[in-house]
Each structure stands twice: as C-alpha cells, then as structure tokens.
Specification:
Elements (H helix, E strand, L loop, with lengths): L15 H15 L5 H12 L7 E9 L7 E9 L5 H4 L8 H9 L3 E3 L17 E9 L2 E10 L7 H47 L23 E11 L2 E12 H21 L3 H15 L6 E9 L4 E7 L5 E3 L5 E3 L18 E4 L5 E3 L3 H4 L11 H10 L5 H16 L7
Antiparallel strand pairs: 1-2, 1-5, 3-4, 4-5, 6-7, 7-8, 8-9, 9-12, 10-11, 10-13
C-alpha cells in the first residue's frame, strides 16, 4: 500500500475557537457512523486543517497468535509516505521507535528534532519533527496517532491537546465499532448454530430400533454447542441392523456437514452390502478425497445379528466399546485403527463379539468419559462402566437416563462440552 504525498498547510492557522468548533463538528460527524475505516479516514482528512503535518498515520495494535511478537501495528490510515507500509509494519514493535514507545508507555511524545532522538525510526528522509499521541480505551493503549513535519520544532503542547482530544474520540468510536462487530458476529454464529442443530436433529434417528433378542437405545446429549457426535442404524435384514457411533472433529456447521457426509457415504456402503471393515475403508477414501485437511472422524460401525447374537464391527479410532456382564465384570474392547480421513487407502480390521445372556454393549463418544468436574477430574471409562453395572437390570433407555444424571451430577452443570 502506497500513499501519495498529502500535507497540510501551516498558513492561515485557525484560532483556538475555530479549532474547537471544527473539533466539535468532527466529533458529531464520526459519532454517527460505526464504520471504523470511514471514521479514521475522515479524521485524517480533517486533521490537516487543525494541525500541520507532512506525513501522518493512525496505527492500531493487534494481538497475534503463534508469533514471535505478541502484538503488531496495523496502519489503518496513512498520508504522505512514499514507502509501502507492507514493508514498514513488520519493523514496528512495542517499545521501539516513537510509535512503539508511546504504545508501550501510554505517554505522548513530541520530538522537536528527530535527528537528535535515538528512539526515532526513519520512515521518511524529510522528517524533522514528530508528535505521537496514544489512543486509549478502558485504560489500555489500543493504537497511536503519529504526525510528522518537514520543519524543526513544528509541534507544541496546543497541538498535542488537539491531537489527544481527537484520539479520545477515535477510541470511543473504535470501542463502539468493535462492540457492533461482535454483536453482528454473535448473531451470525447463533444463526449458524441453529442451522447446525437442525442438521444434527435431522441426521439422528427419530426412534430406537426394534431387533429380536436385543433392547437398543441411544441418546445425543444436549449441549450449548453443536458437536460432531453422531449415531445411526440401518436395517440390513429382518434380523440384522447396521449400527454406527461417530465423532466428527470440530463443532457447529463444519461438524454438522461432516456428519451429513459420513451418514450418506456410510449408508451407501451398507446398502451395497459391504462388510464393516470394507465400508469404513470406502468411507475413509471418500473423506480423504472430499474434505479439507485436518477434518477427520472417529467411528465404530458394526452389524448386529439377532439370530446369532453377534456384533461384527470395525473401529476407526473411536472410543473402545464396553462389554459389561451381569456379574459385574466388564471389558474394554481395545481393538481399533486410525480415524477416517487421516490417510488414504487405510486398511481397517474386523472384530467379533458374541453375546452371552444379559450382557450389555456400550458405544459412546469421548464427551462422556472426558466430561470434567470443577477439579478437572474426568468422568472416565471406569466410572462409566460401574454406573452401567449399577443399573444393569434396567431397560436400555433407563440405563442411558441413569448415566446422563450421573454425568450431570459429576460435572455439576446442566450441559456437557460434547
């Protein structure tokens, strides 16, 4: 970004009353808009009538994640510089140069002769004097005003008073604009969240399945955020159903879309008649080819057979199933492969469970076992298994209710994270 030379004229200087009137007009004008760029441009264009400058800039401080420097300066409006600020901005740092000093200390600075000030950072060869004022909101420096002149000793205390008054008005507008943007973003996210919730509800089965010799029930815990948790069942034959429990990475619309993709592709594999390990391999390749990087899904897909009382399944990086017996014994079935969508041409293994009378198979997501209390202690697999054992005589739906209440009591809150 380059700016043409644009200076203010020191001739025909305004009286103090004229300056106050102009400041009042500027304040009234900028208070009518929430467009920050429009406000800053207006301030800069009007400033030259109040204070002489040959170059000027308004810089805001922005936090930067995963950077050597925690904060950076962004030039919002500049005038009178011949060099691109894309080159200058990386060299502006807190505590360095006039701008960095004012930003770090919150103290204004007037330099009558920049050549004699070791803090000066040369952005223009012609600059002889400079004035910098902080932009402060809620006792925090959020930016700086910088004016440069080609004349020595061009600025005095009166100029600073004018500049500081403008800076205080700009700080108010910045706060208002940020609050307005936050409100808009909140409404946008709420809209997305509602869409994602609707997608999730439409993807989940409307009722529990009926299968001879088995009592089956499932539940998706209501949360404040829409997670990627998902379950489904598909009738294969009269005595067989396909069962899937999955957890798509992320939350909101991305997770909901990933769930929808998984549901469609897995149901296609079931209808074709793929065995669980083949179905997951096919879905894995589809995910790898179709979704963005770092989007993957953990899943268990298996076929529940009522006649043979078996569950043939494959596990793609999901929480291991719990197999619980009426005598209080339980087994964590640890067999599993990598999540779906991480690598292409993944091979998934197939596993086999034969049920004895009264045994319970529990499939779940990590939102249960990783739910934490105020002491950051997780609910855990062992506590989950013991809770099922306590209610092992109950119907499947009642066992789920039993677990839900215990997790809620354990975390001391109404909603889980996942």
């Amino acid at each position: 970004m380059q700016e043409k030379m644009q200076t203010s004229s020191p001739d025909n200087e305004l009286s103090t009353i004229d300056k106050l009137r102009m400041l009042l007009d500027i304040t009234k004008t900028i208070s009518r808009t929430l467009d920050l760029d429009e406000v800053l441009t207006l301030v800069m264009d009007t400033l030259g009538s109040l204070i002489h400058y040959d170059a000027a800039g308004i810089y805001l401080i922005e936090a930067v994640a995963k950077s050597e420097h925690q904060y950076v300066f962004k030039s919002k409006v500049v005038r009178g510089y011949q060099i691109s600020f894309d080159l200058i901005e990386p060299r502006l740092k807190l505590g360095e140069g006039f701008i960095g000093y004012v930003a770090q200390t919150g103290k204004p600075l007037i330099s009558p002769d920049v050549g004699k000030d070791e803090r000066y950072f040369p952005a223009r060869a012609q600059t002889r004097s400079e004035i910098v004022a902080p932009i402060i909101a809620n006792d925090k420096v959020i930016g700086v005003f910088d004016l440069e002149s080609d004349r020595l000793n061009a600025y005095d205390a009166d100029d600073f008073s004018v500049l500081q008054l403008l800076a205080s008005q700009v700080a108010i507008i910045i706060e208002k604009a940020e609050l307005h943007e936050q409100l808009i973003e909140k409404k946008r996210l709420q809209g997305q969240l509602e869409i994602a919730r609707q997608v999730q509800l439409e993807l989940l089965p409307a009722k529990d399945p009926l299968l001879r010799n088995f009592d089956i029930s499932a539940y998706n815990f209501s949360t404040e955020e829409v997670s990627g948790d998902y379950y489904d069942w598909v009738e294969i034959f009269d005595d067989q159903i396909g069962v899937v429990v999955a957890d798509a990475v992320g939350k909101g619309i991305p997770a909901a879309l990933l769930m929808a993709f998984l549901r469609a592709s897995l149901r296609t594999g079931v209808q074709i008649g793929y065995a669980p390990h083949i179905a997951l391999s096919k879905v894995n390749n589809l995910l790898w080819d179709s979704v963005e990087d770092n989007q993957f899904v953990t899943a268990i897909y298996g076929i529940l057979d009522a006649t043979n009382k078996t569950f043939v399944y494959s596990n793609a990086g999901h929480n291991p199933p719990l197999l619980i017996s009426p005598n209080g014994d339980y087994k964590v079935v640890e067999y599993g492969d990598l999540p779906l969508g991480m690598f292409r041409e993944m091979r998934y293994h197939q596993h086999f469970i034969r049920f004895d009378a009264g045994q319970i198979l529990l499939l779940y997501t990590d939102g249960i076992t990783e739910a934490a209390n105020a002491s950051e202690e997780e609910y855990g697999t062992e506590r989950l298994a013991k809770k099922v054992i306590e209610g092992i005589e109950l119907p499947a739906q009642k066992i789920i209710d039993f677990i839900r209440k215990d997790v809620a009591d354990f975390t001391e809150r109404k909603f889980l994270d996942d």
